Amino acid sequence: MLASLSVAAAVSAPGVDFVRRQDLPALTAAAQSIRASGPGPEDKLYVVNRSVWLNSMADLAPPTKYYFPFQTLCAFPGAGPDAVAEILATRPRYIVVADRRTKYYCERPESWRLIDAALAASYRLLARAAGAFDSYDVYEA
């Protein structure tokens, strides 16, 4: 029950209309760039801040049990930055970061510090997928 209320609050909060609206051209381009790189069945995709649809579109599982980005970017009990560290420790082959100008009101800077450090140390930009109102940077290990 508490989890349902937390999700409802996060989705209905001011400024998070992007949870309900998805930029399909940007998502399609991001998924195509991942598929074109030849992912294997064991490869994982960590979608950092939007959109969980990308895992299905690219036919790649997320690296851990945390599926919704606000679980890892915000201070959710049993998740948050600790979950980001757990995800990054699995060394997913792909990490996707949506345009950072649109964000959850509850994002924690420590989550982003972990993500930025991993991207700088172990990933290269594979593609930038832009659409009508959103964009996705696709990184590959």
Description:
- There is one protein chain.
- With 141 residues, the protein is of the alpha+beta class.
- It contains 6 helices and 4 strands, in the order ααβαααβαββ.
- It has helices at residues 2-12, 24-36, 53-58, 69-73, 80-89, 109-122, and strands spanning 45-47, 94-98, 124-130, 135-140.
- The protein has a 4-stranded mixed beta sheet.
- β3 and β4 (135-140) form a beta hairpin.
- α5 runs parallel beside α6 (109-122).
- The radius of gyration is 14 Å and the shape is globular.
Layout of helices and strands:
Layout: H1 2-12, H2 24-36, E1 45-47, H3 53-58, H4 69-73, H5 80-89, E2 94-98, H6 109-122, E3 124-130, E4 135-140
Parallel strand pairs: 1-2
Antiparallel strand pairs: 2-4, 3-4
Residue windows where pLDDT falls under 50 for at least 5 positions: 1-19
Mean pLDDT: 87
Which radius of gyration do the C-alpha atoms yield?
14 Å
CA-based shape? globular
Q: Strand count, sense and closure of the main sheet?
A: 4 strands, mixed
Distinct helical segment count:
6
Distance between the termini: 37 Å
Helix and strand string, N-terminal first?
Answer: HHEHHHEHEE
